[in-house]
TrEMBL record:
Similarity section: Belongs to the folylpolyglutamate synthase family.
Signal peptide: none
Protein name, as recorded: Folylpolyglutamate synthase
Species for this entry: Linum tenue
Binding locations of ATP: R388, D410
Cofactor: a monovalent cation
GO molecular function: ATP binding; metal ion binding; tetrahydrofolylpolyglutamate synthase activity
UniProt keyword ATP-binding present: yes
PANTHER family: FOLYLPOLYGLUTAMATE SYNTHASE, FOLYLPOLYGLUTAMATE SYNTHASE-RELATED
InterPro entries hit by this protein: Folylpolyglutamate_synth (IPR001645), Folylpolyglutamate_synth_CS (IPR018109), Folylpolyglutamate_synth_euk (IPR023600), Mur-like_cat_sf (IPR036565), Mur_ligase_C_dom_sf (IPR036615)
Amino acid sequence: GEIGNSPRSYQPTSVFQASYIQSLPRHQRLRFISTRSTLPAAVVVSSRRRLFEYCDMADGEKESPAAPTSYDEAMEALSSLITKRSRGNNSNKGNQFDLLFHYLKILELEDALDDLKIVHVAGTKGKGSTCTFTESILRNCGFRTGLFTSPHLIDVRERFRLDGVDISQEKFLAYFWWCFNRLKTTCFTLILYHIHAAEFGRYGQERTTEDVPMPPLFRFLTLLAFKIFSAEQVDVAILEVGLGGRFDATNVVQKPVVCGIASLGYDHIEILGDTLGKIAGEKAGILKRGIPAFTVQQPEEAMCVLEDKASNLNVDLQVVPPLDVNLLNGQKLGLEGEHQYVNAGLAIALSFTWLKRTGHLELANQDHTDSLPEQFIKGLTAASFQGRAQIVPDQYVDSEKDGDLVFYLDGAHSPESMEICAKWFSGAVKGEHQSDKAKPQVSSSTHQLKKNIMQVFDPSSAERVQLEILLFNCMTVRDPELLLPQLMKTCASQDVYFKKALFAPNMSVYHKVGTHALPSAVPEADLSWQLTLQRVWDNTMQKDKGREAKQVNHVAEEMKDDTGKGGGSLESSSVVFPSLPLAIKWLRDTVRQNQSVRLQVLVTGSLHLVGDVLKLIRK
């Protein structure tokens, strides 16, 4: 049967009709389109050529749904979904959210999504760690798990973990091309009948090519996660919200098993709002009527909004305490930092509730106030998450001793997370100082400071001096006046002072995905933002540096260093590098040329920066 009786009356009103037309043989599709055109003959002929080309492409994709198979080609296709709209553009907010339900129809994922047993987690900070703990717990309970997080640091496949491991390249390509080609074909079919209107502006009042676009990057990746987890038949899917909650692509989920909201704070205020109440309202958008939910202790303004939203939806919202360290039986959490006990407590509540609501009562009914099941302890202690409180010794420095250059990586990018990061870093490096057996015990702190500075430039010395270095960059939508002073103040309160701050632009570019996102040659960079960061740092140093830091700098003035070519000497408080590789090179050269120095480098301010550093130091 035909879908319309008149050329002027036909409109493809659903994706089912569009899919039906696309399923027709090539000649029937062309006849159907051409006979319903009311445009001049010359226009029909021109458009028929384009339709022949498109149908040939579409037929080819049907015959070989997984071609092309090159990973780089897949990354190029994925990059084409990156929108040019500014992140701070408020038109992003809820932009055609209902299209997500159409995409689910196109991919035949509606029923599959309802069948997934989902844990859905939002929050400003800690949501990724909470998801990681939850996945590890349930995997160690014997379930097949799927974990979707963002962003990725090195490879996009990091976002999709099956049983705790990044999806294989082979599986990724198969699922990627299946989804990409199906969406491309159907979305194009929906607009095919209005191609003339787009070109000549004659019949474009009712529908244009903008009505049915391909999904932008994050929405596509979310849909891909649903496809992967459904096809791989996971027992549980743990989803981390990308941004906000109410209009996030993951919120197309209508029937989660349980929801969680991690710690809230100020972030993405240009999109989510400039008060904690507004931000909490967006995060609470993931709550579903009658579905149990958990959160952690929140600021009063945020908690009031969460409780109000939960009450309106008949949601039993419970506040869970941080994990009691004694429940780990002397073991340590897999993720570093005191703040992780807050995230672990939330993960435990989510895991127990998931087990209970999915009928696994043998574990769910255990009392976890005084003890935890062994599977939970193993999951909490074995969890791992790249770029969050991660310590990576540099393996490519030819020095006399191991660990002369150590990177401490954390993607903190809000004032609250910067404070947490600073506490973690301070505790980690102070622990290293205390464990350094070569550290002499002397009574005069000023004498020891001079001795340490002398050792930096005396390779024959048997003792190593440890210096803290900051490598920093953040997005221009962040306020460095809130981030850098918080970092410096918190570290100083722990008696940790940075010898030098390095500022460099990220290597990865926001309009590309994959290995080609790193340019092979260093382009001429605009360093205006990095110079702004440097000014903020130097101004803060002048205002707030402590007496001990002044003593170090004063002594260093007497000891001129000639190793800082291209990056200045160690005595200068900050430097801007035109590229990240040059910053890494300066750090390595400094260690090589000063055998008695050990550099402990905090890399923070941006997960993109953390990912770029990991790429460089693992090459």
